[in-house]
Amino acid sequence: MDNPVGVIGGLGPKATISFMKGIVDQTDASCDQDHLNILLFHHSSIPDRTAYILEPDQAENPLPMLVDDVKQLEQAGASFIAIPCNTAHYFYDELQAQTNVPIVHMIRETVGAIKRNNPKAKQVGILATEGTVQAHLYQSELERVGLTSYAPPSWMQETVNALIFDQVKNGDPIDYQAYNYVLAQMSSYGCDVVILGCTELSYIEDTAPLHGFPVIDAQRVLVETTIERGGKNVKKEVQRSKMTS
């Protein structure tokens, strides 16, 4: 297989399927051979990332399994690696140190897309797992480029947690009304754009009725970055992550 892209998936499964569908749907291709070659590890048994970040003394550390996946993808000839899980980027520096294969930094790519395509944005809202929020993964990157971040209050984070864990990961019906309410509240708190910083939220966005809230989907940014780094073109009509909805 020539120049395959390595993907560490399964974090979670529905989000990975959404990511892979995005890769296929958004690649400007007219035949099978125009698409990317991909090595996918759908590694669903990797321990929960948020659980470890919040309670490292009690939860199992996912890093050893992630490192093993990175090394196997390197040995298999991956040209670069994408990890469609925002929270897993807590371990980014340790993972990159274990391989010479470049790993796409999903969070930096997303913040970069905001700077390029939302030049008037000042305050950026963050919707993500508690692990991502508590680890300040997005806050640090936003501050680095001169943007103010806004993380939801605890009551709203509980709603976001329910959307991620109780609904998408648990396989229950999605409460799109609650999703839209959270977006409306973030806008009312002065957020010029809201990051969907969890791939389960990306799954919800993909399946939700159209709305007019200013969001940037981190998974969609990763999809487009992966296509472009793989030497393919993104369909112009679906380059939505590079502008607000």
Automatic annotation (TrEMBL):
Signal peptide: none annotated. The keyword Isomerase applies. InterPro entries: Asp/Glu/hydantoin_racemase (IPR015942), Asp/Glu_race (IPR001920), Asp/Glu_racemase_AS_1 (IPR018187), Asp/Glu_racemase_AS_2 (IPR033134), Asp_race (IPR004380). SUPFAM superfamilies: Aspartate/glutamate racemase. Keywords: Isomerase. GO terms for molecular function: aspartate racemase activity. It is an enzyme of class 5 (isomerase). Pfam families: Asp_Glu_race (PF01177). Gene3D superfamilies: 3.40.50.1860. Its EC number is 5.1.1.13. Belongs to the aspartate/glutamate racemases family. This is Aspartate racemase.
